[in-house]
Amino acid sequence: ATCLNILQHWRYLRNKSVVSLRSAVGGRRSADRVVRRSGGHRDGQHAEVILASRLTGRHTGTYGRELPCSVPRPEVQDGAPIQVRAYYATLFLMNLRNLFVVQPMLAIMVRATIVCSFLTCGCHTLPSEESTPNPLAAVPHFAPILPANQRAWQTDLAVCPYAEFDGNKVIIHDVRDFVYRSDEEYVVNYLDQQVDLRQIESVDFLIVPFKGAPSLAHTMLSFGFRNGQYLGVSVEARLEEGENYSPLVGALRQYELMYVIATERDLIGRRTKYRDTDVYLYRTKATPEQTRALFVDVLKRANKLASEPEYYDTITNNCTTNIVRHINRLQPGRIPLDLRVLLPGYSDQLAYELGLLEQHDGLKVGRQQHRITDMANAHADSPRFSKLIRR
User: Fold this and answer.
1) How far apart are the first and last CA of the chain?
2) Alpha helical stretches, state H, the chain
3) Contact yes or no for 147/254 (Cβ under 8 A)
4) How distant, in Å, are the alpha carbons of 63, 229, 284, 290, 369 from that of 359?
5) Average pLDDT of each block of 10 consecutive residues along the chain (391 residues)?
6) In this structure, are residues 348 and 205 in contact, taking their beta carbons and an 8 Å threshold?
7) Angle in degrees, 0-180, between the axes of helices 82-97 and 45-56, rounded to the nearest 10
8) Is residue 199 within 8 Å of residue 288, measured between CB atoms?
């Protein structure tokens, strides 16, 4: 509407026909007052400037200088009422101000409202089969879209792992162990793996920085057992068929959350060889008892997500924030609130400063020592993958 008004007023300014002065500005007296305020000049230039400067709060000596936007001076036809043209010049500038100042601010407010609505309810098009009765469900605008486990998931994220506990014996179902030919082509293979909690010895912290955005990264954990076996845990956004991950979309509750429990060859080899990303592996200082408690807490969380789905959130419910919650649940306050939790590309620096990682000759030197990309690519198909990448 503003653009149409601008066009209409511009046409009036260039129109050769004479418009009634009384209908345009509400009477001869008001038009004369405009001329008198312009210093008595009737050439149109100063009248337009006075009206425009009163509107914008800025006085100029020449038409078009220091105004909100650059507007070419309209052609004033001989015999046309100068006051009418000054009036339409004012409307013209007023609408330009609305277009470039007022309306963008309103648009920002509208967008902020939409984002807040997405953060509150999400906007999945598929309904949840596990949703509870809601009094507003009959009203489409207020019906919340809840997370669900029944969707058309991507094949590599289609199966949620879960664990069955029997004292110190744990059977982990659906451990992923895919054989990759490329990032999108793989042989599907899931394992049911039995582990003894008393055999857990260590936990390693892995970080995978994003290409082109080093402040962002994916973080994972890997648990080591006395027999040389390793199990990796990766907290990920669960994507549907045709979806691609985006941190911005992830902040709008468009993905579900998933714990992927897999072999290291699956989690690490896929990223280094077929996604061409660097992976850094850090040995933590956790004792076997602490590692065991952390492993059990992770498995319980995976079980909960298998029955009670949650939304992934780029800021509050992602790979790094879940690791922080696991640690703080076992040792309250161990990891304080820090910006590097929200920017996980620097999470290794935070863990190093908090004494969670084995100390080396400074983080920069230590980070290069912990880069396992080349070793992972060289031994991607080896059954001794986990041992070889730790040489």
Assistant:
1) 68
2) 2-14, 21-25, 28-37, 45-56, 82-97, 103-121, 247-250, 264-269, 288-307, 319-330, 339-342, 347-353, 363-369, 373-378, 385-388
3) no
4) 69, 24, 9, 19, 12
5) 65 50 39 40 41 41 38 46 60 66 62 55 40 48 75 96 96 96 94 96 96 92 95 96 90 94 96 94 95 97 96 94 97 94 93 88 68 94 92 81
6) yes
7) 30
8) no
- Whole-model pTM: value is 0.65
Q: Tokens 């309306």 sit at which residue?
A: 103
pLDDT, residue 212, reads 85
CA gap 136, 279 in Å, rounded: 47
The tokens for 189 are: 């293979």
Structure tokens at 328: 């703080």
Structure tokens belonging to residue 192: 């049911």
Q: Are 100 and 69 in contact (CB under 8 A)?
A: yes
Alpha carbons 325 and 193: distance in angstroms, whole number: 26
Provide CB contacts within 8 A for 386, sequence distance 6+.
224, 228, 229, 230, 264, 265
